[in-house]
Amino acid sequence: MGRWTLDVAFVWKAVLTLGLVLLYYCFSIGITFYNKWLTKSFHFPLFMTMLHLAVIFLFSALSRALVQCSSHRARVVLSWTDYLRRVAPTALATALDVGLSNWSFLYITVSLYTMTKSSAVLFILIFSLIFKLEELRAALVLVVLLIAGGLFMFTYKSTQFNVEGFALVLGASFIGGIRWTLTQMLLQKAELGLQNPIDTMFHLQPLMFLGLFPLFAIFEGLHLSTSEKIFRFQDTGLLLRVLGSLFLGGILAFGLGFSEFLLVSRTSSLTLSIAGIFKEVCTLLLAAHLLGDQISLLNWLGFALCLSGISLHVALKALRSRGDAGPKPPKGLGSHPDLELLLRSGQPEEDDNEEEEAYFVAQGQQ
């Protein structure tokens, strides 16, 4: 009887994990192809991003209100001083990362975007060393060399290579290294109380919106104000379809963050890291099959080299976490290209001494 109960519990946990991974894949892969699809007909990626940020903020505020009503516990609200001094740098870096990533879809294929964006862990490790969140080790140097070499091989003589788009997404990856390093430092400040992803998204979105607005005004403001798809619309039906498509992207962006949190809270950061690696492969295969992206053998070898570096980092992180004693959180940053946000999900008051420490991988929201 006990063995049968154990088998049922194992199967149930496996099915639940698989379901959460598939949910994460749907949102993560879905928003990548959504961004590419929308930018083919709607050439205002910065405005699209700003609208997504507004939708995420609304859903975050609604989620906070529902949690507060159900738990009867007030959610954290930062003072203006802490908000501007500690959250603003992270919000600005996040806005630039997301904005440049979406902007790049005007010029490059999904496959080139996926490969280049996966190299963000390279910059994350560099900034981790600069801010002393990681210790310099030979294994980390090997990881950096594998990822950098893989990126070079993937882009070398690529038939669909575009310099402008590659520069945008590589710049986004570089800023992403700063973004996630600042984010980890922000979330590790327990006195701020931003360990919950809903609270983090709620506080980041307004400053992200304001940080992206000058870039939008310079590069898209005039063109958008004269566009017949938005401000000078003549077809109400077309306007509603465009707004509906933009709203859908905001839902996908919020769903991505929430699905990642569910997955890591029910399993582990290692599960999400491994799932992220297979997600990159699935994205490339779908891009080649559905969009006709041309990927040569050399490009595939470069991608495999990059994934081997990421996988090595995942394995090393797993070994370090297994060897760590005590409940203290590890210093290392995440292995997924879009990095892991350190979270501590609080339990009810009577279980405050049994807080679960987890990692939350954010997909750059876009």
Give the strand order, joined by hyphens, for the main sheet. 1-2
Rounded mean pLDDT is 78
Largest sheet: 2 strands, antiparallel
The structure class reads mainly alpha
Strand content of the residues, in percent?
A: under 5%
Spans with pLDDT under 50 lasting ≥5 residues?
325-365
Quaternary assembly: single chain
Rg:
21 Å
Instruction: Give the termini distance in whole angstroms.
Output: 47 Å
Organism: Panthera leo (Lion)
Family: Belongs to the TPT transporter family. SLC35E subfamily.
Membrane topology: Multi-pass membrane protein
Keywords: Membrane, Transmembrane, Transmembrane helix
Descriptive report:
This protein has 12 helices and 2 strands; from the N terminus they run ααααααααααααββ. The protein is mainly α and 366 residues long. It has a two-stranded antiparallel sheet. α2 packs across α10 and α4 packs antiparallel against α11. The longest helix has 40 residues. Its main location: membrane.
